[in-house]
Design brief:
- The complex is a heterodimer of chains A (152) and B (296).
- With 152 residues, chain A is of the alpha+beta class.
- Chain A has helices at residues 2-6, 31-40, 62-69, 80-87, 144-151; strands spanning 19-22, 25-28, 46-47, 49-54, 58-60, 75-78, 92-93, 97-100, 109-113, 119-125, 134-141.
- Chain A has five helices and eleven strands; from the N terminus they run αββαβββαβαβββββα.
- In chain A, the strands form two sheets. Chain A has a six-stranded mixed sheet with strand order 7-11-10-9-6-8. In chain A, strands 1-2-4-5 form a four-stranded antiparallel sheet.
- The longest helix of chain A has 10 residues, at 31-40.
- Chain A is elongated, with a radius of gyration of 17 Å.
- Chain B has 296 residues and is α/β, with parallel strands linked by helices.
- Chain B has helices at 5-15, 37-46, 74-77, 90-95, 112-120, 137-146, 195-213, 235-244, 280-283, and strands spanning 27-30, 50-53, 60-65, 81-83, 102-106, 126-131, 152-156, 169-175, 216-226, 247-250, 257-258, 262-263, 266-267, 276-278, 288-295.
- In chain B, the strands form three sheets. In chain B, strands 5, 6, 7, 8, 9, 10, 11, 14 and 15 form a nine-stranded mixed sheet that branches. A four-stranded antiparallel sheet of chain B has the order 2-3-1-4, with helices on one face.
- The longest helix of chain B is centred in the last third of the chain and has 19 residues, at 195-213.
- Chain B is globular and about 55 Å long.
- Chain B starts with a helix and ends with a strand.
- Classes of the chains: A alpha+beta (152), B alpha/beta (296).
- The A-B interface holds A 32-33, 36-37, 39-50, 61-63, 83-84, 87, 114, 118, 120, 142-143, 145-146, 148-149, 152 and B 71-72, 74, 77-79, 102, 126, 128-129, 131, 135, 137-142, 144-146, 148, 150-157, 164-167.
- β3 of chain A pairs antiparallel with β7 (152-156) of chain B, so a sheet runs across the interface.
Chain lengths: 152, 296
Amino acid sequence: MKEFIQQFTDKNIIDLTSVLQLRSNFFLVSDELKELLAKTKHVPSFIGVALGEKKKIFVPSTYLLSKIVDSTENKVVVNKQGAWLFICGRHVYARSIFSFNKSQKIDDIVLVMNEFNECLGYGQVINPLDSKKVAVQNLFDIGDFVRRERRK
Amino acid sequence: MEKSVTFFLDRYRRLGSVVKPVVLKQSIRVNTLVRSEKEVVSRLKSLGVELSKIPYTKFGYFIDKSKFSVGAIAESLLGYYFLQGSASQIPVEILDPKPNELILDCCASPGGKTSQLSQFMDNKGTIIVLEKQKHRLPALLNNLERMHCHNIIAFHMDALKAERLNLEFDKILLDAPCSGNFASEPNWFEMHRNFNTVNNRAALQRDLLSAVLKVLKKDGILVYSTCSLEPEENELNMQWLLDNHNVKLERVDSIGDPGITNFFGKKLNPQISNCRRLWPNKTNTEGFFIAKVRKL
């Protein structure tokens, strides 16, 4: 998780001392919840604030993405159609990007934002952002909430 | 004979309602943990979704018209609202959870009412969430994340074993597993519903009631609900509860008819009229039964 955050920012946006790992999932846990959990002597499936899950790659929670948004310049803003296609699991065409950080280069990891400045997921720059090609490869999008239930 | 549509329809008629197929409006609950009610309503309206306020809920809206499914658009995925039946928003309103209380939510998946509890508590206090069925856990955990619920500890655990948690709760929500009803399940009558299903569910519900009352603080509140229309799972279970536990039934201030106190000639405790029974034809909702129990 730490490595994932560092792709976007060096700032300490999460208090790592309050992070609890349950199997492959990470949670941010308050002292109040920790105390109660200790009383129960049981292992939970979910506690506090979900931060993400370690799979082949780290799958961040929407909370974690929202924390990263304010601390990074690595983002592209896509138009309405691009946003819809992205949350359907598709990659981002350069033509649907209407704003990006000019210092962004190939292989960079970027957040994908919609016109309302809401984070829809993230991806990797695979072609110049002002080209005519697929520019950002989808690595995670919020449509995963729907797709992951179908998978399980 | 007991399986037949006519049998159940005739039974409902004798209990107080002529039941016909109903077309339910889709409804949502705006999640103010993420965005204000005003922002969400205005955003949906800008997308061409026509909404009207559900008068008997705090944050509920009917979807009057929409050209697309509101379940998979970005606003839904970002947790701005939850697709939740209008009647199923009532139990949490009746429980009235407060910030800093310790709440138990039994049989919680898929998490609509759980996230509503978090919302009403403004993510303060704690909700202990139990779900017995492993295959229902992913949906629950998904929804807790999506709806920004931050005051929850969820266990893969049978609510019958709630005592093992070593905790005592201020309030408990028991939305019990039930035999369902035709309004929320169009093929309900064809699903081999009969009195074995109803009686098995009623027995399980009594076991659950006994189990969770053990972990409720004295003077604490338990809200019991089902989406069944069968008195065995509702009023008769409340009669059993009054006969076997030191509790009283408080008034459920909501839409619906009073709980039935005359079951085919058998007089039930008058306190049961404090419960609410939502007949789909009368309330235009899914069928529902809600009881508010205070432990004495």
